[in-house]
Specification:
7 strands, alpha+beta, 161 residues
C-alpha cells in the first residue's frame, strides 16, 4: 500500500472526464476495440485524482481531503492509501520522480459529506464500445446509431451505461 510520503502523477494513458454527472477515467492506450473497461470515480475519488499531479505527497492530499470533507485526517489517509493502490493497479497513476511538497490544506468554506474515495471498474461489451453508447439511441439523446435496435446488440441497451 502506498505510504503518505509518496508522490503520484496521473498516467498519460488515461483521460479524466466529467460527463452527465459522472466522473470517469478512460484508458487510451489501445484501440477502441480493445477497450474492456472504464473507471468511475466518486466525488472524493475525483477530488483526490485531480490532486495527484506529481507535485503533492499523498499525505498532503489526505490533509486537503480532511479539510474539505467531514472526515478525520487518519481515516482520510487510510482511505487515500487504498484508493491510490487501486489506481496504481489499474495503471491510472505512476510514481513521480521527485519528493512531494507538503502544501498546507486550503481552508474550506464548508466541509462536504464524506465517503471513501472509490474507483469502480465498469466492464464494457466490445460491441457497445465499437458502436458507441447504444442507450443514447433509445432515449433520444445523441445520434441514433445503426445497429442499436438490432437484437444482436440488446446487451448494450440493457446495460444502463
Amino acid at each position: 500500500m502506498p505510504t503518505m510520503n509518496r508522490v503520484l502523477a496521473r498516467s498519460e494513458e488515461f483521460v479524466f472526464r466529467a460527463i452527465a454527472g459522472e466522473t470517469i477515467l478512460v484508458p487510451i492506450r489501445n484501440e477502441v476495440a480493445d477497450l474492456v473497461a472504464i473507471y468511475r470515480l466518486n466525488a472524493t475519488g475525483a477530488f483526490a485524482w485531480e490532486r495527484m499531479d506529481g507535485t503533492s505527497a499523498l499525505g498532503a492530499i489526505a490533509a486537503q481531503m480532511a479539510a474539505s470533507f467531514e472526515v478525520p485526517a487518519d481515516r482520510a489517509a487510510c482511505d487515500l492509501a487504498a484508493f491510490a493502490a487501486d489506481l496504481e493497479a489499474a495503471g491510472a497513476v505512476v510514481a513521480a520522480r521527485r519528493d512531494g511538497d507538503v502544501r498546507p490544506a486550503a481552508p474550506a468554506a464548508s466541509r462536504q459529506p464524506y465517503e471513501p474515495p472509490a474507483l469502480t471498474r465498469v466492464p464494457l461489451d466490445a460491441r457497445c464500445a465499437v458502436l458507441g453508447f447504444c442507450k443514447q439511441a433509445g432515449t433520444g439523446a445523441g445520434p441514433a446509431l445503426p445497429g442499436c435496435r438490432d437484437p444482436l446488440f440488446s446487451p448494450c441497451l440493457s446495460q444502463g451505461s
